[in-house]
Amino acid sequence: MNMTDTDTKYYRKGFGLKDEIAGTLDKDYHSQIVDRLKAAEHAMRFGQTTIKLAKEFGFCYGVDRSIEYAYQTLKKFPDKKVYLTGEIIHNPYVNKRLLEMGVRYLSGPYSEGAKLSDITAEDIVILPAFGVSIPMLDQLRNKDCILVDTTCGSVLLVWKHVEKFSREGFTALVHGKYYHEETIATVSRTAVEGGGKYLIVRDLEEAEKICAYIRKSAGRQDFMTTFSKACSPGFDPDRDLSRIGVANQTTMLASESLQVAEMVREALSDRYGSQNINDHFRAFDTICSATQERQDAIKEMLEGGNDLTLVIGGFNSSNTKSLTVLARNYNPSYHIEEPENLISASKIEHLPPGAAEPVISENWLPSGPMTVGFTAGASTPNAKIGELIARLLLLRNESITF
Question: Could you tell me the domains of the chain?
């Protein structure tokens, strides 16, 4: 079902209550330490510890907007039931805060049993920053409830390209994770034009398998086993890999997305001839600008020299994981979810790149003079960044003085 901003039960532009909720947002997400660091050109020294903060970090515009609309919704409808289809963004603090404010989750770790069947025409449903799939959207529209759509504009741009691929008869090859909410919503857009095909590629290793099949140097059974959960119904690699349009989950590592696209372009060129490549290949760089800016900023910070880097963000946050992968190329770096993950000066709980679960490592924090770099995924509020810096300084026995 198509929706427009003129629908009386569909909202994409908030409710004009920004000023009314500003104080609450500031209280929940503001950090004096972060403000001081920004004012000091993103670097300050506390005793033997120099703190550096990447120039771009934390909340992006899309996340800011999504949370603001959720707060506006609760202000606008104080006496109605308000639901979220799932996590509004991948940050535990933000999701728990909304849960405390009375939001009911229909899925995910914050769900307390609410179901789609519970929703009535009198209720409010917030669509998260990731967007929702077309089948889910249709079900919600059939409920005739009020919908508050906080889907990020960068995600909407990806949808536009994916729909165009399908309209022109190209398979949408999406660099992302097949189980991620954004990617699920994105590939559902191939159905808008009817019968569109998609394939989701996680990494360079999977991309190589796709390229091998295009070049006729890989078997069908192995291919179908690898991508059994990551392709459209009825996907036929012999038919559906002849014309490919590449897009991506907006929070993936930008350099890897570009490499995937180039690998596929070269494989199709080898198969069909470089003179015919425009008939077989399309690509658009759909990494969101905020993701790119944060990746560029951490590289700039690290090239200036650090002894250690801490990256804070949800353990299920793809953009935070990408930042950690970049940081690992320069110095010991740890992806943590909460300031409390700095258990002590000798123990840290963190998520290593590629790991499914966090681990506890020892002897992570050196003594003596050192420089510690900080950055945060696009779903991490300044309040948590500030708490993390304070926690690190406490473990280093340094006083915070301004």
Answer: 28-59+289-395 (3.40.1010.20), 61-151 (3.40.50.11270), 154-283 (3.40.1010.20)
